[in-house]
Backbone:
C-alpha cells in the first residue's frame, strides 16, 4: 500500500492483491481522484448549460432565442431536456460509480476518517433515492371541480395510473390578507379644486357635498361584457372590472359605467368632473381545498389541504398546487408517490453529519 | 463610519484605530440584528421573505462569521478595509431594493423559510468572507510575505470555505425537504436549484483540490474568487435573469 503524501490516506494498489489484480486495477481506475475531477467538471459544465438554456420549452421558442443553427445543436445534444438526457444521467451514474469505487478502494483509510466515508455514502444514497424515484415514482395532476371525484391520474412516464381510492373535492376557498378594493376618484375638471377618493361598495351611497354629488354604486361586474341581454360579467375573475353607478343630478337619471382598464372612458357628458375607477386587487393569504378520501364506498379521511400542508394516504401525497382565478370552483392538486424519499432523506442526514465530522470532528482537516 | 475607520486605520497603520474600527463593526452587527428583529416583530414573520431582507441577513452573517473567526492578528492582514467596503457597497445595493414589509405569499408560509433561507445566507456570508480574504491575499501576499500572515489568511480562507460549504449544503438540503413538502418533489431543476448545485459542485471540487492535490494559498485564493462569481450569480443573477419557482425571492 502507498500513502497519499498530502492527506496520508492509505490506498489499496493492484500490486497489493496479486490474486485479483485485474479487478483491483479496474477499481483503481474507477475510483481515481482524477476521474472525480473529470466527472465533476463535466457535471458542472452541464449544469451551467442547463441553467442558462431554458428547459422543456417548445422548439419555436429556442429558434426565437438562439436562431436556427444553434437550435439544431440544442436538439441534437438534448440540451432542451438536458437533465433527463441519457448522457447527463450517464455522467451522474459515472460519478456514483467513481464514489463507490473510491470508497471501496480506500475503505480502510476511510474508516479512519468516517466523516469522508459518511459524506461519500450520503451522495451514493441520494443517487440511489433518485434511481428509486425514477423507477417507481408516480406523479400527476388532479384538475378538480367542487363536488368532483377522481380515482386516476396521468403520469408523464407511466401513463394512466389508477388509485386504490378516490379523491373528492368537497370545497375550495381563497383566503385574503386584504380583500380586493374599489376606489372611485372624483376629479374636477377645474384643476384648482382637489380630487376626492371614496371606496365603492354595492348599495352604499357616496355623498360628496363639496362637488354637490351623490353617487350610488349599483352593481359590480368583475369581467364586464355587453351581450344581447345587456351588461353582464363573462367570468368571476377581475379581467375587466367595471361598476354601474347612479350619479345624482344627471338629467336623464340613467346609469353610467366606469372601467378600471379604461380610466379615460367617461361617457358622452361634459360634466364638471371626471370619475376614475381604480381596482385594487386583494392580497392572497392562502388557498385551500377540503378533500375526502373514499375507499370501498367509505370515507376514510377528510382533510383540508393548503400550500405547504399536504394530505398523506397510502404512500400518496396530495398537494394544493393551484387555482383558476376565472373559476373559483376549480382546484389544482398535485399527487405524488415517491418510495425514494426515505433513502434520499437518509442521504441528506448523512451528508450533513459527514461533512461536519470531516471539517470539525476528531481527525478532521480543519488545519489543512 | 466603520468603513472610514478601516480605511484610515489601514492608512495610518495604527492598531488603536483598528480596534475602534472593529468595535464599530461590532456595533454595525448589533444594529443589523436589531433591525432584523424589529422587522420580525412588525411583520410577525421571519425577515427573510424578499431580496432586501435576505441581503440584510447576509450582511449580518458576513459580520457574524468574521467575528466567529476573529483574531486581533487578522486585522493586520488588511481584511478590515475590504470587509467594510463590501458592507457599504452591499448596503447601498440593498437600499435600491423594495424595503416594505409585506405579508407572506402562500408558498413561503412555512417554518422551513427560516431554516432554508437562514442557512443559505450564512453559507453565502462565509463564502463572501472567504472571497474577501482571497482578494486581500492575492493583492498583498501573492508574491510572498510574512509567513505568519499568509498562513493566517490561508487558514481563514479554508475555514470560511468549509463553514460556507457546510451551510450551503444544509441550505440546499433544507430547500429540497421544503420543496418536497410543498410541491411533492425535492428537486425540479429550477434555475435557482441548478445554480445552487453549480456553486456547491464548484466548492466541492475546490475543497478536493486542496485536500488531495495540495492547492493552497494563491491557487486556493483564486478558487475562492472564482467560486464567489457563482455565489453572486446564484443569489442575484438567477433572480433577475431567469424565472422559476424562486421568482418571489
Residues:
Amino acid at each position: 500500500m502507498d500513502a497519499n503524501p498530502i492527506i496520508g490516506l492509505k490506498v489499496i494498489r493492484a500490486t497489493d492483491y496479486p490474486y485479483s489484480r485485474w479487478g483491483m486495477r479496474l477499481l483503481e481506475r474507477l475510483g481515481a481522484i482524477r476521474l472525480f475531477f473529470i466527472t465533476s467538471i463535466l457535471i458542472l459544465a452541464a449544469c451551467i448549460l442547463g441553467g442558462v438554456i431554458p428547459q422543456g420549452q417548445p422548439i419555436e421558442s429556442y429558434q426565437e432565442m438562439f436562431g436556427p443553427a444553434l437550435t439544431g445543436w440544442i436538439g441534437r445534444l438534448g440540451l432542451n431536456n438536458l437533465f433527463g438526457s441519457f448522457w447527463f444521467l450517464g455522467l451522474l451514474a459515472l460519478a456514483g460509480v467513481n464514489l463507490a469505487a473510491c470508497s471501496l478502494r480506500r475503505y480502510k483509510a476511510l474508516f479512519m476518517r468516517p466523516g469522508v466515508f459518511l459524506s461519500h455514502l450520503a451522495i451514493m444514497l441520494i443517487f440511489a433515492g433518485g434511481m428509486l424515484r425514477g423507477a417507481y415514482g408516480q406523479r400527476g395532476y388532479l384538475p378538480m371541480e367542487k363536488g368532483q371525484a377522481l380515482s386516476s391520474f396521468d403520469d408523464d412516464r407511466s401513463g394512466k395510473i389508477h388509485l386504490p381510492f378516490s379523491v373528492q373535492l368537497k370545497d375550495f376557498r381563497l383566503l385574503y390578507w386584504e380583500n380586493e378594493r374599489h376606489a372611485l376618484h372624483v376629479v374636477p375638471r377645474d384643476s384648482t379644486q382637489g380630487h376626492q377618493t371614496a371606496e365603492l361598495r354595492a348599495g352604499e351611497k357616496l355623498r360628496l357635498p363639496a362637488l354637490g354629488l351623490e353617487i350610488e354604486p349599483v352593481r359590480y361586474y368583475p369581467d364586464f361584457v355587453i351581450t344581447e341581454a345587456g351588461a353582464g360579467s363573462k367570468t368571476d375573475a377581475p379581467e375587466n372590472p367595471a361598476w354601474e353607478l347612479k350619479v345624482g343630478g344627471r338629467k336623464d337619471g340613467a346609469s353610467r359605467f366606469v372601467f378600471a382598464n379604461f380610466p379615460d372612458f367617461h361617457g358622452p357628458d361634459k360634466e364638471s368632473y371626471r370619475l376614475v375607477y381604480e381596482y385594487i386587487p386583494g392580497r392572497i393569504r392562502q388557498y385551500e381545498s377540503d378533500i375526502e378520501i373514499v375507499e370501498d364506498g367509505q370515507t376514510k379521511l377528510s382533510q383540508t389541504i393548503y400550500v405547504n400542508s399536504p394530505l398523506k394516504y397510502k404512500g400518496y401525497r396530495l398537494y394544493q398546487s393551484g387555482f383558476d382565478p376565472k373559476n373559483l370552483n376549480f382546484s389544482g392538486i398535485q399527487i405524488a408517490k415517491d418510495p425514494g424519499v426515505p433513502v434520499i432523506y437518509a442521504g441528506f442526514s448523512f451528508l450533513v453529519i459527514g461533512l461536519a465530522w470531516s471539517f470539525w470532528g476528531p481527525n478532521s482537516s480543519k488545519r489543512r | 463610519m466603520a468603513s472610514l475607520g478601516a480605511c484610515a486605520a489601514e492608512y495610518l497603520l495604527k492598531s488603536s484605530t483598528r480596534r475602534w474600527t472593529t468595535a464599530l463593526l461590532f456595533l454595525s452587527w448589533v444594529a443589523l440584528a436589531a433591525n432584523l428583529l424589529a422587522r420580525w416583530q412588525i411583520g410577525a414573520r421571519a425577515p427573510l421573505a424578499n431580496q432586501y431582507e435576505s441581503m440584510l441577513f447576509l450582511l449580518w452573517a458576513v459580520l457574524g462569521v468574521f467575528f466567529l473567526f476573529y483574531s486581533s492578528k487578522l486585522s493586520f492582514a488588511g481584511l478590515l478595509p475590504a470587509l467594510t467596503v463590501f458592507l457599504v457597497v452591499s448596503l447601498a445595493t440593498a437600499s435600491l431594493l423594495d424595503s416594505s414589509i409585506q405579508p407572506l405569499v402562500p408558498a413561503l408560509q412555512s417554518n422551513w423559510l427560516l431554516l432554508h433561507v437562514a442557512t443559505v445566507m450564512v453559507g453565502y456570508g462565509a463564502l463572501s468572507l472567504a472571497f474577501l480574504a482571497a482578494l486581500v491575499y492575492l493583492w498583498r501576499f501573492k508574491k510572498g510575505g510574512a509567513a505568519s500572515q499568509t498562513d493566517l489568511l490561508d487558514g481563514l480562507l479554508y475555514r470560511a470555505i468549509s463553514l460556507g460549504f457546510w451551510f450551503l449544503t444544509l441550505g440546499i438540503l433544507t430547500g429540497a425537504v421544503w420543496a418536497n413538502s410543498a410541491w411533492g418533489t425535492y428537486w425540479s431543476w429550477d434555475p435557482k436549484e441548478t445554480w445552487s448545485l453549480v456553486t456547491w459542485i464548484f466548492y466541492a471540487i475546490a475543497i478536493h483540490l486542496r485536500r488531495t492535490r495540495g492547492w493552497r494559498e494563491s491557487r486556493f485564493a483564486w478558487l475562492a474568487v472564482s467560486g464567489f462569481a457563482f455565489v453572486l450569480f446564484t443569489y442575484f443573477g438567477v433572480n433577475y435573469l431567469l424565472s422559476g419557482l424562486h421568482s418571489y425571492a
Summary: DSSP finds eight helices and no strands in chain B. Chain B touches chain A through 47 residues (CB under 8 Å). Residues 46-241 of chain B form one domain.
